[in-house]
Write a structure and sequence with these properties.
The complex is a heterodimer of chains A (450) and B (172).
Chain A (H helix, E strand, L loop, with lengths): L18 H13 L4 H27 L14 H25 L9 H22 L25 H34 L2 H10 L7 H34 L11 H27 L8 H31 L3 H12 L3 H13 L7 H4 L2 H27 L15 H24 L5 H13 L1
Helix pairs in contact in A: 1-15, 2-14, 3-4, 3-7, 3-8, 3-13, 4-5, 4-14, 5-6, 5-7, 7-8, 8-9, 8-13, 9-10, 10-11, 11-13
Chain B lengths: L1 E8 L2 H13 L5 E4 L7 H5 L4 H27 L16 H23 L17 H4 L2 E6 L7 H10 L3 E6 L2
Antiparallel strand pairs in B: 1-3, 1-4, 2-3
Classes of the chains: A mainly alpha (450), B alpha+beta (172).
Keywords (chain B): Membrane, Transmembrane, Transmembrane helix
Pfam families (chain B): ActD
InterPro entries (chain B): ActD
């Protein structure tokens, strides 16, 4: 008998389990009646989704004049929320892709729900540029297609890069989620009856668990992880170039790509914590989503948040050091102008309160972690508000200085996408296991048997 | 009609051992069915080195597509943007990169389905009454009745000898 030292990650699955018991537990959200809070979330999500549809209806029927955008703040809530949602998506791809490559065992209990989070966040984000076009039925104009006018998209512009970056990101994160689901769908197919059996049967594509198929599957999975990794970094970098290419004071900075990428990971992990802490409690998943998982997530939040905080301070320095009067005026406008409370609230959350995560006492306190995870996304929302709206409201010409007033349509569209996100995610975890079953059983094997 | 025999093993080691013996005895028409990837299976059943090469090929195709798209559209309608060179290649990197990844991702996913013979509407092994066990915690070998070495009694005896629980899979 070889020596049987416990695996260094043995505490990632806590409690006495057998493979069967573990599978039963992980399939509970799909197979057992839903807990009461789930119904509440679905109801709230559905109500807000309906409100969202009404907001869209008003936008399409009466036009963009119902929004608060105007000159000079022509990018308002729509772009703030586009960037906000895209950023939130990043944690899913990060957990599923980068942590696969780094062989981090703790990702196995988190990847499915965060990948689903990515999918719905990117879908929510993608609606904003579409509706901001005003005539969304003409969105295909951004595609390269031969027209009678012989015009093509301008491929030296980051806005046309953005189209491809977002579409690639949506495609790769959907395929990654689906690929990971296939073995679980086969298991669900064999365990269910009626329409569910049909649904899982169709979606599982006839997966049988053939060992040769598994080898190829693993090879493709790791390959896609390797490809998704640079995509995660590239997507928000490209989004940031939409701004950095412009001459607007506060936008024209070479530091934007890493700034946005760090912010995306920070807000994504915060959103993942916001979702996972209640999920773990409602479905009693403490055995597979342990305090160590949450601790790791808090540490990644801290690390990426520190990157964000550093660049906040760097922005102030650059505005002063560049010697460009408009840049410095913009910085003072942010700190002392009518929008100063937004700026300082952002600083308070993302620079000051973030520091609590250095201390294990705060990281282990789930109430604080949950509150902070929500605050962090408020902070990131404020950051995008600062970048998009405050910058535009104060450019080079004093005659151009105007404040931005969002309308009820703007707010409805924002709350509506939150509703859509919650509604979509809760239906997802009702139909598909929120924790990757095959991967957890595999992890269980590696931890206990070797 | 008899489709074949389904043998259930309780560990991956036994599965590998059984596959070695069956291969040694000349069985060819069989499949291993497992709940998760088994290390060392490629030594017994043969590995598949095609995926990285196909991915590389798709990557080259994607780079070509990306560059062609941008160079062609620029030359078809030359447009002076900020006095930059007409074919300023650094500006072409993001789109080329995204299209490369997009081509590989979609292509390799379809290729994976193709080499695995998916989607598959029906598979004889799935008709085994206890089939779900190999998706949960057991390791299965399905020996097709069409295998030249197949003989109901002797194959069953061999599988039992290797430590398996054996089920006859028939069309009902």
């Amino acid at each position: 008998m070889a020596r049987r030292e416990p695996h260094p990650d043995h505490d990632l699955i806590q409690g006495e389990w057998t493979e069967k018991a573990l599978v039963e537990k992980l399939l509970e959200p799909v197979e057992k009646p839903a807990p009461r809070p789930w119904r509440v979330v679905v109801a709230v999500g559905a109500a807000l989704t309906l409100a969202w549809l009404y907001g869209l209806f008003v936008t399409f029927v009466r036009g963009l004049g119902t929004w608060g955008i105007n000159q000079p703040v022509a990018w308002g809530f729509d772009i703030v929320h586009f960037v906000w949602w895209i950023g939130i998506g990043h944690a899913g791809t990060l957990i599923s892709a980068i942590l696969v490559l780094m062989r981090q065992n703790w990702r196995d209990s988190l990847n499915r729900v965060t990948e689903a989070m990515t999918l719905f966040a990117v879908l929510a984000a993608a609606t904003y540029p579409l509706i901001h076009m005003g005539r969304p039925q003409l969105f295909y104009w951004v595609m390269p297609y031969p027209t009678h006018m012989a015009l093509w998209p301008q491929y030296k512009s980051p806005l046309s890069w953005d189209v491809l970056a977002i579409m690639t990101y949506l495609t790769i994160s959907t395929l990654f989620l689906y690929l990971g689901l296939i073995p679980d769908l086969a298991l669900l197919r064999e365990r269910s009856r009626g329409w569910r059996r049909k649904l899982y049967g169709w979606l599982s594509l006839g997966w049988t668990g053939n060992a040769v198929h598994w080898q190829r599957y693993r090879a493709v999975y790791v390959l896609l992880a390797g490809l998704a990794t640079p995509v995660v970094i590239s997507v928000h970098s490209v989004v940031s170039m939409d701004f950095a290419y412009g001459l607007v004071p506060g936008w024209h900075l070479t530091v934007f790509p890493p700034f946005f990428a760090a912010g995306a990971i920070y807000s994504g992990f915060a959103m993942a914590l916001t979702l996972i802490i209640p999920l773990r409690k409602w479905y009693r998943l403490e055995g597979v989503i342990t305090e160590r998982h949450l601790d790791w997530m808090a540490k990644v939040t801290l690390a990426s948040g520190l990157g964000v905080a550093y660049i906040y301070l760097l922005e102030i320095f650059i505005a002063w050091y560049a010697g460009e009067p408009a840049e410095w005026a913009q910085q003072l406008w942010r700190m002392t102008g009518p929008y100063a409370p937004y700026y300082w609230a952002m600083m308070l959350i993302n620079v000051v309160l973030l520091q609590t995560l250095w201390f294990p006492r705060f990281r282990k306190n789930l109430t604080w972690l949950f509150i902070f995870s929500i605050l962090a996304n408020v902070g990131m929302w404020l950051e995008r508000f600062v970048i998009v709206i405050i910058s535009l409201s104060h450019d080079f010409l004093p005659g151009n200085f105007q404040l931005y007033y969002p309308t009820w349509v703007d707010w409805t569209l924002f709350l509506g996408t939150i509703g859509f996100f919650l509604f979509g995610l809760s239906l997802f975890i009702r139909l598909f296991p929120p924790i990757a079953v095959a991967e957890m059983v595999h992890l269980f094997h590696r931890l206990r048997k070797h | 009609m008899l489709y074949g025999l389904m043998a259930y093993f309780d560990s991956a080691e036994r599965l590998l051992e059984a596959l070695r013996v069956l291969k040694g005895r000349g069985y060819r028409h069989l499949e291993a069915l497992t709940p998760n990837p088994v290390e060392g299976i490629e030594e017994v059943l043969g590995g598949d080195g095609r995926i990285p090469w196909i991915a590389f090929g798709l990557g080259v195709l994607g780079v070509g597509l990306g560059l062609f798209l941008q160079i062609y559209t620029t030359l078809d309608y030359p447009h002076n943007a900020g006095g930059k060179p007409l074919l300023g290649w650094p500006a072409f990197i993001p789109v080329t990169f995204e299209l490369t990844i997009l081509t590989i991702t979609v292509g390799i996913f379809l290729f994976l389905l193709y080499i695995n013979g998916l989607p598959l509407a029906a598979h004889p092994a799935v008709r085994a009454k206890e089939y779900v066990r190999v998706l949960l915690d057991e390791y299965g070998v399905f020996v097709y009745a069409t295998d030249p070495r197949f003989d109901l009694e002797s194959t069953k005896a061999l599988l039992r000898e290797l430590g398996a629980e054996v089920e006859e899979v028939r069309r009902d």
